Amino acid sequence: MPATPVIYFEIGCRDTAKTQQFFAQLFGWQIQQSGPVAAINTGSKDGIQGHINSLGHEPHNYVTVYVQVDDIKAYLEKATALGGKMLVPPVKIPTGTFAWISDPDGNIVGLMQPK
Length: 115
Fold this sequence. Notes:
By secondary structure, this protein is an alpha+beta fold. The chain is 19% helix and 44% strand. It has an eight-stranded mixed β-sheet, covered by helices on one side. It is globular.
């Protein structure tokens, strides 16, 4: 089985400016608006980087991680077979394809298949 590292995190909110200010002041993160999301640079090579996003619909408040996979469709099928649900079907973005699943308890996890 190929490695499936956690590669990214996302913080969801209603007010991106307020959320950006909170985390920048709290942790000293450098945050810059980049299209519809605000990219987070934690200032460290340790750990992973992330972004802040306002979807404009539920869920408004969430924190999720993205797991890198080699075949997003296969992992969506496997998650469903294990009792999870597909929340967001595969979406192509400039860096690859992502999708959201929930585990049987409803926790959101992103899947990311890089280009």
